Amino acid sequence: METSKSDIKIIEEILAGSKSAFNLLYSRHSRNHFLTCIRYVKNRADAEDMLQESYIKIFRDLRQFNAEKANFRTWSNKVVINTCLMKLRKKNILVDYESFVEHGKNVKIQTSAIDNLSLQELTNLILKLPKGYRTVFNLFVIDGFSHKEIAEKLDISVNTSKTQLMKAKKNLQICLNQSVDFDNLNYANR
């Protein structure tokens, strides 16, 4: 397997009909894309489905990739994120955000608590957030979307996006400060 080829060269070979080039591109980027998928869903099987659906779209839309506008990793990650969001929307997960209103009102902020967590522990906490909170948190904090972009992608208001992010952060703080497991918190309409 050639790993020294640039993504652009591999894409040219794929567009010329090379299946082995697609396998090379997949093996080079699928791990990072899978990690993106797993941030949006709790179980591995759903993440694997999202990854497969994403690569079907990447292959189908590869001619639209423009190396002058973005590198392949950036472009393909947007395809993966959009696929995840579409899948979540189809499952009707991103509705009724306002039902999570009253959690975390008197939260004490302890900035050093996060320093004691490993990346895996932090990821596990994020995965335990309710799906709406987790989705907005991922899009804003990890994927770098603005509240306006999130609102457009999820068909919600900018204020709802801001509220969901604030509530996600408060819930993470509750768990960090009080060693509370999300599974023991009572959420309405999970």
Question: What attributes characterize this protein structure?
Answer:
190 residues, mainly alpha, 2 domains
Describe what you observe in this structure.
The structure is a single chain. By secondary structure, this protein is mainly alpha-helical. It has two domains: 7-90, Rna Polymerase Sigma Factor, Chain: A; 97-184, Arc Repressor Mutant, subunit A (Orthogonal Bundle), CATH 1.10.10. It is 62% helix and 0% strand. It is built from eight helices and no strands. It has helices spanning 7-15, 19-40, 44-60, 72-90, 119-127, 131-142, 147-154, 158-178. Helix 2 (19-40) packs across helix 3 and helix 3 packs across helix 4 (72-90). It starts with 6 loop residues before the first helix and ends in a 12-residue tail after the last helix. The model is unreliable at 93-113 and 186-190 (pLDDT under 50).
Lay out the secondary structure.
Layout: H1 7-15, H2 19-40, H3 44-60, H4 72-90, H5 119-127, H6 131-142, H7 147-154, H8 158-178
Helix pairs in contact: 1-2, 2-3, 2-4, 3-4, 6-8, 7-8
